[in-house]
Amino acid sequence: MLKIFDERVLVEKVVEGELIRPSQSCVVFIQKGSIELEVNSVRTTYQSSALVLFSPMKMYKLIHCSEHLKAYFVLYNQEVLKERINVSFNKFSVIQLMNMEQSKDAYSLSKEAFSHFWNTTEQLYFYLKNPNCSKFNEEIVVHSFTVIAYMFVDTMMKSSPLNTEHNTRKEAIAISFIDLVSTHFTKERELKFYADKLFISIKYLSICVKEVTGTSPRILIANTLLDEAKLMLINSGLNISTIADHLSFSDQYAFGKFFKRHTGLSPRSFRKDIASTHTI
User: Fold this and answer.
1) Do both 44 and 135 map to the same domain?
2) CA–CA distance, 36 with 38 (Å, rounded to integer)
3) Which of 99, 155, 183, 279 is such that its CA lies 20 to 30 A from the CA of 209?
4) Are residues 151 and 185 in the same domain?
5) Does residue 127 sit in the same domain as residue 240?
6) Euclidean distance between CA atoms 124 and 267, whole angstroms
7) Which residues have C-beta within 8 Å of that of residue 89, sequence separation ≥ 6?
8) CA–CA gap between residue 245 and residue 247 (Å, rounded)
9) Are 46 and 153 found together in one domain?
10) Up-side HSE of residue 59: CA atoms within 13 Å toward CB?
11) What is the 3-class SS of 84-150, one letter each residue?
């Protein structure tokens, strides 16, 4: 469910210039020093008092770690945590938060605000590394991470306040659309299918989804399909032709064209690069 590492996972185990990838969703807390990474040919330096989101769907090239880096890497399984952690966010807020997470991967905090994260993360680190120190160890771990999750969402909301003036009808349509996409995306790519399911026009569907999520419905379908393709390339031993068939592409060429348009890599190159990355 949860793993936690300190800065040694980079400083001692990863060579500068090497590709790295978290095995699960990951949030990094940088207390001291800096980390310079390259993603899609763009270099970014993350400084102290920063929170950084790392995706298992991306590969990061380590350019440089400062000499006195102090950081924690918290890896978490989203699906398992959903079953263990009860959070009081409505579906509308979750959709907007997901959109914010895709558009921004780092947050710089004041030293005081960051210290609250750091202290809670230190507690989480202690109980994860010492599983027999308390009869309530598992409960303490879950609650510590829950506190971190709430503080992190609060940081995201303050950084880009959620739109609270929304039309409940449009919100319901957008939520229903996303639910339908999660069920039918491997077979159905056309907006007409989803509009017909919701008994509305394609134009009105597009307006509702764009207004509520900030993203067009076509892009949401493509992103869902792309994430599934990446997962299959990373986690399965299936050949690319079989994956293309599973995702209902007409052939391997059509799948490759779609994948390269969105990632800049062919499926084969993506899988090869993933195989050569250092996974944490």
Assistant:
1) yes
2) 7
3) 155
4) no
5) no
6) 37
7) 97, 153
8) 5
9) yes
10) 21
11) HCCCCCCHHHHHHHHHHHHHCCEEECCHHHHHHHHHHHHHHHHHHHCCCCCCCHHHHHHHHHHHHHH
Tens-place pLDDT, residues 153-172:
888 877 765 555 556 888 88
Which among 194, 279, 266, 201 is positioned nearest to 235, based on CA atoms? 279
Q: Which of 141, 152, 136, 203 is nearest to 173 (CA)?
A: 203
Residue matched to tokens 């506190």: 147
The backbone torsions φ and ψ at residue 138, rounded to the nearest 5 degrees and listed phi first, read -60, -40
pLDDT tens profile 102-151: 567 899 999 999 999 999 999 999 999 999 999 999 999 989 998 998 89
The predicted model scores a pTM of 0.79
39 and 153 housed in the same domain: yes
Region of 86 please: left (phi>0), alpha (psi -120 to 50) or beta. Answer: beta
Residue 171 has what DSSP assignment?
Answer: H
Tell me the residue range of the domain where 195 lies.
168-279
